[in-house]
Amino acid sequence: MIRARSRPAWAEIDAEALVANARLMEGVIGSAKLCAVVKADGYGHGAVIVSKILESNGIDRFAVAHVDEAIELREAGISSPILCLSEPSYSAIEAALEHRVTLTLYTKEGIDTLAREAKRLYEKGLISDPRAGYHLKIDTGMHRVGADPMEIPEIAERGREVGLTLRGFWTHMSVADDPPEDGRDDFTKAQIRLFESAKNGLFARGFTPRLHVANSATGVNYPHARYDMVRSGIALYGCSPSPKTKISGLRQVMSLKSRVTYLRTVGAGMRPSYGRRRPTRGETTILATVPLGYADGVPRALFDAGAEVLIRGKRRQLAGMVTMDQVVVDCGTDFDVAVGDEVVFLGTQGNESITPDEWAALLGTVNYEVVTRIGFRVPRILESEVDRVIDGRMSEVRR
Q1: CB-count burial class (<10 Å; 0-12, 13-18, 19+) for 283
Q2: CB count in 10 Å sphere of residue 3
Q3: Is position 160 within any domain?
Q4: In Å, how far are 177, 308, 310, 313, 330 from 352, measured between CA atoms?
Q5: Partner of 147 for a Cys bridge, out of 31, 106, 299, 313, CB 3.0 to 4.6 A?
């Protein structure tokens, strides 16, 4: 991630909101353990920043998609257990063991490779126990990854035979964000029943793994499916899992902000930016240039969709097509707008707010995609650090 040196553009992370969301979810899930899902760079919020905040506030379980994501956390000093949610390439298993990453497996080949690598590293003195723990994932109907239900006993027995420890058993719900009261939960109930049957079979064979099925939506909508642990991702970042599953009390964690870097006054009928798509309307229009573009996670489609930004507490339309590095904002005849003014793309300014849900509705997508799209050029900065990191450099901007 690029440091904030040459332009006033940043993603502002509200640590208090993040912790408040975690506490809210802990209250929702009751006795189940909260596992913070920080894959995809913490859903675009900065995995290291997010994980450090959560770990320092007592959240001690994390989940990622890839071994490399787990290693990044370890190298940043995160010491809590980390679960990798997909079976990795076999070449990554050595690094996973060395960095104390718990792997999800669902093939006999994965079982054999983990056992072989654990034994080898133990004999070399690089790990302290050859009986590596793993989590076994069952495919209950999403059909993305996971073992066939009929293969679960065989895979688990193979793990025991080669000296591994089955520490977790889990699956993933595909439509749990459809609330039960909508009458569309037959599939989710069928997934849970299939999981229960496979779980009972494992228990009958003497296995006692930690059980987890629920993501944020399942944790809210299906209390009986919380089991031992709930993997909460999107809710931690202040976004509800779907328009049908709203979680009251969540606080938006990330704000996407910039500052006006250039102003131009033009007459009527001018057509700013690529494609010359929209003419200015009044005899005089103030155009503000802002250094965030589609390379930073501000989609071009927002222009046609009618997206707005906030400047001086007011909503302002985009004056032209979003470009790779910049947007031009129509400020009408507001001559009070000045170079250096804060521009909010996502977040709150005054009495106005723009949320990932608003962008998602405009773009025909989900809030997950909105927040994870924020680009690598945008530094993630704690709200408490903005004055020092960003505003301290504004004196360099020509006025």
Answers
A1: exposed
A2: 8
A3: yes
A4: 28, 11, 8, 6, 17
A5: 106
Of all residues in the chain, what percent carry a pLDDT higher than 70? 96
State the residue range of the domain holding 174: 31-237
**Spatial contact of 307 and 362, defined as CB atoms under 8 Å apart:** yes
Q: For residue 360, what is the domain's CATH number?
A: 2.40.37.10
**pLDDT tens per residue across span 334-364:** 999 999 999 999 999 999 999 999 999 999 9
3-state SS of the chain: helix, strand, coil percent to 5? Answer: 40, 20, 40
Same domain for 188 and 268? no
In single-letter form, the type of residue at position 382 comes to L
Tell me how crowded residue 334 is: count the other CB atoms within 10 A of its CB: 14
Cα separations in angstroms, 260 against 295, 327, 343: 18, 10, 7
Structure tokens at 148: 């066939």
Residues 287 and 222 in one domain: no
Contact criterion met (CB below 8 Å) for 104 and 87: yes
Residue 25 lies in a domain: no
Q: Is there a contact between 43 and 18 (Cβ–Cβ < 8 Å)? A: no
- To which residue do tokens 């495919």 refer? 139
Give me the active site residues, please.
39, 274
DSSP label at residue 87: P
